[in-house]
Specification:
two-stranded antiparallel sheet, 8 strands, signal, 551 residues, mainly alpha, Serine Threonine Protein Phosphatase 5, Tetratricopeptide repeat, 2 domains, SusD-like_N
């Protein structure tokens, strides 16, 4: 039986937090990915005479790549994967959250090569790749050949790099491949198909060496099953990445995870708990997760923040969740996306805040006292300063009441209550800052099941098999009747409900041909927007790079 994360002294995020305090810590000089000339000395305390000899010591010494991976995953990467879809929108309110058009451009698909999140994600993933390359260059020579876990240890780090390249390929398409530390050659972009082949080969080479264990010691680290999950995700999207469908290969990768019998679909009673602040290795769906801990040290050049409550909980509901800070709550969903949550018997509805709000007892109305103009800034009566108390009610529509150009809803109570809010990553009242303890699942077992169902239909396989797989997930989410004949559209909607706010919706929209549709205020239909531009900074550092089409 697993203990709460707060008592797990072996939990991986704690190991990463301590990595920089350990006498074996790597003193990483970060290699900036795509640079054509940087003099970066290899500074390290790791020498053969002091190198750790045990598997546990190696985990500590190889922590920096994982610390780098945690970096911006739940902030910049979350923004660029989510706010560019119909899943979420972050408008300004009275000038707040305008942020130099950062969120407007993501919604309208009007970003440029100078867009902030485009640059920060490139730099973050470059840091992951550079940090891993350096760690591998050191550890390949300093781990004694007699160490029985050497192949496993190195393959695990190569999986971190493979995952980073997968994200680079997914976001930017054509990127240069650097797999050796100290290589400062200005390399041109490899094609997306070439990057795909590189990542595929790295994963396949790693799988035989990776651990097949699923326990506290392997939590937050790449195992054999995390590698198969990444392969399945690549193969499901292979037609997007390479022009050639690989659905049979996707099914085979999914079957490897399924046949391991090491995972299962969480029950309806546990669905919401998978995303609580005390989630962790006890969740039987988690194949690979990124641990978060407000006390953990962030890798230099990254932020390490897990800020969902800050962005999602209405500021009026601070007391409802007993938060030690006042949330900003600028982020909500769109009516088009919320329409998928149309089954009143589905547990996944409970991840949303909608309509009239109450205190923690569920009975006492949550009220706010303000003035008539504070409630509605466009109120024209002479008694605008008169006091008014109202029950907080979240409304579904997003209306640019103050200014369309600046994407502004207004700076009153009506504006701040616009949009249904998602609290899947449940507010963490234990943290003394805005940073949360909730770990982020990257690959879950229900994703394996739904990917297999989709690949089965796309490859002309049995509709009965696909229907059975989808119902395997649904039977643990709703008491409504099982589906009888699943279509691809059914799977798309099921994925929208199941993986809300887990960074996969952009990926799904592109694969299903929906990314060029209109939603909210967005009308752009340019297919070039399926990948982001290479940032200006990267182009300056590496003149061999060529900009992506359409930018």
């Amino acid at each position: 039986m697993f203990h709460s994360k707060f008592s797990q002294n072996l939990k991986f995020n704690t190991q990463m937090k301590n990595i920089f305090k350990n006498s074996f810590a790597l003193l990483i000089a970060l290699l900036v990915f795509g640079c054509h000339k940087i003099e970066v000395p290899v500074n390290t305390q790791l020498t053969p005479d002091i190198f750790p000899q045990t598997a546990a010591q190696f985990v500590q010494a190889s922590g920096p790549p994982y610390a780098a991976l945690r970096g911006n995953f739940s902030l910049d990467y979350w923004f660029i994967q989510t706010l560019t879809t119909d899943e979420a929108i972050l408008p300004a309110r009275g000038g707040n959250w305008y942020d130099n058009r950062g969120y407007i451009d993501m919604h309208y698909h009007s970003w440029t090569k100078d867009h902030g999140a485009t640059g920060s994600c490139w730099n973050w993933l470059s840091t992951v790749i550079g940090t891993t390359n350096q760690a591998l260059s050191i550890l390949e020579t300093t781990i004694p050949e007699s160490t029985t876990t050497k192949s496993q240890n190195l393959s695990e780090l190569k999986m971190v790099r493979a995952f980073a390249y997968f994200m680079m390929m997914d976001l930017y398409g054509n990127v240069p491949i650097y797999d050796k530390y100290g290589d400062f050659t200005p390399k041109a972009n490899s094609t997306r198909a070439e990057v795909f082949k590189f990542v595929e080969s790295e994963i396949k080479a790693a799988i035989p060496n990776l651990s097949s264990d699923v326990n506290v010691a392997t939590y937050g680290r790449f195992t054999k099953w995390g590698a198969y999950a990444l392969l399945a995700k690549m193969y499901l999207n292979a037609e997007v990445y390479t022009g050639t469908a690989m659905n049979k290969e996707c099914i085979d990768a999914c079957d490897a995870v399924i046949n391991s019998a090491k995972f299962g679909v969480e029950s309806s009673a546990n669905y919401l708990k998978m995303f609580y602040p005390d989630n962790g290795p006890q969740m039987k769906e988690f194949i690979f997760a990124i641990p978060y801990d407000p006390a953990a040290t962030a890798m230099s050049g990254t932020n390490g923040f897990m800020y969902h409550s800050r962005y999602d909980v209405p500021r009026s509901m601070r007391t409802r969740y007993n938060l030690p800070f006042t949330p900003s709550a600028p982020r909500s969903t769109l009516p088009e996306f919320y329409a998928y949550f149309n089954d009143p018997n589905d547990i996944r509805n409970q991840q949303w805040l909608t309509g009239k709000q109450f205190l923690a007892d569920g009975k006492t109305p949550l009220t706010v006292t303000t003035t008539k103009k504070g409630y509605d800034q466009f109120y024209t009566g002479a008694d605008g300063n008169a006091s008014v108390t109202y029950q907080v009610e979240l409304t579904p529509e997003i209306k640019l009441r103050q200014d369309v150009t600046t994407f502004d809803l207004g700076n009153d109570e009506i504006a701040w209550n616009m949009g249904y809010r998602n609290i899947k990553f449940y507010p963490d009242a234990t943290s003394t800052s805005r940073n949360q303890n909730n770990d982020i699942p990257v690959f879950r077992y229900s994703d394996i099941i739904l990917m297999k169902a989709e690949a089965t239909l796309r490859s002309g396989g049995s509709a009965q098999t696909a229907t059975s797989l989808v119902n395997q997930v649904r039977s643990n989410r709703t008491t409504s009747a099982a589906l009888t004949n699943v279509t691809l559209e059914d799977i798309y909607q099921e994925r929208s409900r199941e993986f809300t706010m887990e960074t996969w919706h952009r990926n799904d929209m592109i694969r299903f041909g929906k990314y060029e549709n209109s939603w909210g205020f967005k009308k752009d239909t340019d297919k070039n927007k399926r990948i982001f531009p290479i940032p200006t900074g990267a182009l300056v550092l590496n003149p061999a790079l060529k900009q992506n089409p359409g930018y």
